[in-house]
Amino acid sequence: MGTLLGNAPQESEADDEAAPGSVVAFPYDRMTVDQFRHRFPRARWRDDIKAWWVPGKTASRRIGRWLAEQEAEADAHADARGRDAFAFEPIVSPYLEIGRAGFQIRTPYSKTVVEELREIRFARWDGDLRLWHVPFRSFEDLRSHWTAIEAAARRNEPAERARRAEARKGSEDELKAKARSTERRKRRYPVLPDALPPPGVPVAISYGIVVFTEITGELVDPAAVSDLYPGATENHVWGLWRAPSLKELLSTWPAKAVPDPPGDWWLPTIEELRPARRAARVREGTDTVRRG
């Protein structure tokens, strides 16, 4: 809405003495200016700083209250516009309901759904109700993402997932998935002896962020793991890893970019750290509940 520029003495060519006060700037709008001048009749425009000067020791506090009121009023208008837009062209979906303050979205879990909703301004997750809240003012954002949200939700319905699982049974894709799962449970990864990852430090590998705990020295058999680790050679050795803790991930300084070529491991970027941190929060929160 506007910017409170802070307390400052009044200084201009016409004034020799400083006086307490504060300055504020906001985009020009005739109605807003009229409201501002009615609220602050002693305010005057300072052309030298392109802002309004409000005299008085409490000017900063009074301006702050006025800006908050203006912002709340703007939000109310935006919500009204969003509600009207929805009434004119509604989204009809079993995953969307209308609440008192906006839209309520409840879908089967889907990473795509979460990513799409995180792109919508003011969307928030309600852990108690297990649904997403999106205010009416964000309706246009919601509509632009809705096709992807609904498609991902339908793909993750239990019946649809069961159908796909049944279709995959005995297929090459299922065999590869089982092999990957079996290998991941071994918590090992091939690394070169002359380019070992730092122990105890979160690093990125081809399928996530891990912390290497030990280099066994055991040579990798490339023929046995070529489908899982295409870059593995007879010079690679096995390194053992564990999942990083949230504390470790939060204290990791992100790299600016992934090296090109990346190698067997690299320092993670912020784009890689963010989902890892979210997963760690969920994992550690679940562990706390189980222990409780």
Automatic annotation (TrEMBL):
Biased composition annotated in UniProt, kind: Basic and acidic residues: 157-182
Region annotation (Disordered) ranges: 1-20, 157-185
Name of this chain's protein: HARP domain-containing protein
Organism: Rhizobium quercicola
Organismal lineage: Bacteria, Pseudomonadati, Pseudomonadota, Alphaproteobacteria, Hyphomicrobiales
